[in-house]
Amino acid sequence: MDDAGDIETAETAWRLLEDHFHHHAALMRRFEKTSAGEVVRLWQRGTNERGDALSLFERDALIERHCDLFGKWPEDQGRLVVQ
Asked: Is the pTM of this model over 0.70?
C-alpha cells in the first residue's frame, strides 16, 4: 500500500477509536450518580429510573456502572430483555 493509503487507513482507525471512546464516555455518564443499591434494583427490574424498559443503550450503561461498582457484570445479563 502507498503512503496515502496508509495515512487514510490510520485516519479511519483513529476516527473509529475516537467514536468508540465517545460512546463509552456517554455510557459511563448515563448512570454515574446511581447508587449501588439502585443499580441492582434497576437491573433486577429491567427498568430505568422512570420505570420504563431499558433501552439497549441504558442496558449497556447499567452494565458499565455495575462493573464500575462491583468489578463484574451483573448476574443473568443474558436474560434481560430490552426495547
From this structure: yes
pLDDT at 22: 97
Q: Write down the pLDDT at residue 18.
A: 96
Tell me how far apart the 2 most distant CA atoms of the chain are, in Å: 55
Other C-beta atoms lying within 10 Å of the C-beta of residue 11: 10
Closest CA to 39 of 18, 16, 12, 67: 67
Q: What whole-number distance in Å separates Cα of residue 17 and Cα of residue 19?
A: 5
**How big, in percent rounded to 5, are the helix, strand and coil portions of the chain?**
65, 0, 35
Q: What are the Cα distances from residue 36, in Å, to 3, 15, 17, 63, 74?
A: 50, 34, 30, 12, 12
d(CA 83, CA 79): 13
- pLDDT computed for residue 78 by the predictor: 57
